[in-house]
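Hi support team,

I submitted a single chain yesterday and got back a structure, but I'm not sure I'm reading the token output correctly. Could someone confirm the output below corresponds to the sequence I sent? I've pasted both exactly as they appear in my results page.

Thanks,
R.
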Amino acid sequence: MSTNQKIAVVTGGNRGLGFEASRQLAKQGYKVILTSREEAKGQAAAQKLQAEGLDVIAYPLDVSSNESSQSLAEFIRQQFGKVDALVNNAGIYIDTEAGSNSILNTKIDTLQTTIDTNVFGVVRVTQALIPLMKERNYGRIVNVSSGMGQLTDMEGGSPGYRISKTALNAVTRIFASELVGTNILVNSVCPGWVKTDMGGANAPRTPEQGVDTIVWLATLPDDGETGGFFRDRQPIAW
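Hi R., thanks for writing in. Yes, this is the structure output for that exact sequence:
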């Protein structure tokens, strides 16, 4: 690896948006650390991208574990000494699996499990990697959110997912505010409804269309936006 090659971390990189974001960042010359909860799935995904001639490696990461998040940071420090971009893509949607899609009778356990991954998971991984960004005063953090978390457009159903994405947007704003004056930019993105395992086959967008704004935010110039919420490279209401 050349010393000036940029390093990107993508969480939940073994499929869907995370996999495609890993591919597109690697196509832009980044060395991508593709993380996944299940090591074998991550390795298989990385090998697919390696077969396309892309510089991608796999590393296991459970975003619900402090120890796992710190282990990732330590691995990056020892191997590369820096990280330039973090795409917090790992997320779960279990409202329907949990038997209720209504806040009138959703189980608190469902909300807790969703928030632990979709919100606290992002905080854990970001906290673990920001020290590496601060050392070089460079970082791009992209939190994969959803229009379902927009308060301006909030409706019923999917309470765990909706609440988690609204909270994630707050996390974006807080990190961005605390990092003002550094060259570490933090933004949220709504990728739209994309053909993935979560989005389903009827979704209108391809994964490549879905990750366009993610990759754009992960590669922003030094005077780029921070503390924003974007869809199709345009700011949208919180």
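A quick pointer for reading it: The longest strand covers residues 31-36. Let us know if anything else looks off.

Best,
Support desk
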